[in-house]
Specification:
It contains 3 helices and 9 strands, in the order βββββββαββαα. It is of the alpha+beta class. The strands form 2 sheets. Strands 2, 3, 4, 5, 6, 7 and 8 form a 7-stranded mixed sheet that branches. The chain has a two-stranded antiparallel ribbon with strand order 1-9. 18% of the residues are buried. The structure holds zinc ion (ZN) (2 copies). Pfam families: YceD.
């Protein structure tokens, strides 16, 4: 989707290229720390919490067609180990590069795609709007690519015990023999009860017999 909404220069993810100028070869470096937008990362897996700081380092280079944006984003991502469900924190470094074309670049030399025609091609292209560009889609793609699809707390996390759910990394010798102990206890109990009952019963019978004889 080409962006239709006008860019707002007050949005921290919108950058201004006016200072750079349109002379090819001109360079500008800038850094900015922003609050992470919502859902920055892989949803339900790992991501940068909304509002957490994201450090941006950008290099803007004026080229014939527009502005080439190269940069790095650094932030701390939070998620959950897919094996043992413990919280996972990850220092994230995501690189990106994209050309933002001048809107009128198409007027010179290039074949203009009719709206709706060749829409897929258009989706992949980014344009400057009044000298501004929106870094957000670029940042989102870069962050997702830099994050693991299956984060783990440690490379060889053994996960959880299938019997009781205990975290095996905390207790490597974890095993279950509770069933055997219970079985042994039941057997012992059954044995002693049988002996006692026999004695009581025989004693009672004897007593009754004595009373009847009198
Ligand atoms: Zn784990
Ligand atoms: Zn267990």
């Amino acid at each position: 989707m080409a962006s239709n909404a006008r860019l707002d220069h007050r949005n921290p993810l919108v950058f201004d290229t006016h200072e750079l100028g349109r002379r090819p070869g001109a360079l500008q470096r800038l850094t900015r720390t922003i609050d992470a937008p919502r859902d920055l990362g892989i949803q339900g897996v790992i991501g940068v919490p909304e509002g957490a700081p994201v450090e941006l380092e950008l290099r803007l280079e004026s080229v014939m067609e527009g502005v080439l944006v190269t940069g790095t984003a650094r932030a701390t991502a939070e998620g959950e180990c897919v094996r043992c469900l413990e919280p996972v924190e990850l220092e994230l470094e995501a690189d990106f590069q994209e050309l933002f074309s001048y809107p009128d670049a198409d007027d010179r030399g290039r074949v203009i795609a009719e709206p709706g025609d060749d829409a897929e091609d258009d989706e992949d292209r980014f344009f400057l709007e009044d000298g501004l560009f929106d870094l957000e889609p670029l940042l989102r793609d870069a962050v997702v690519l830099a994050l693991p699809m299956q984060p783990v707390c440690q490379e060889d996390c053994p996960g959880l015990c299938s019997e009781c759910g205990a975290r095996l990394a905390d207790d490597p010798d974890h095993h279950h023999d509770a069933v055997d102990i219970r079985w042994a206890a039941l057997q012992g109990l059954a044995g002693s009860m049988t002996d006692g009952e026999k004695d009581e019963m025989s004693g009672a019978e004897a007593g009754v017999d004595e009373k009847q004889e009198k």
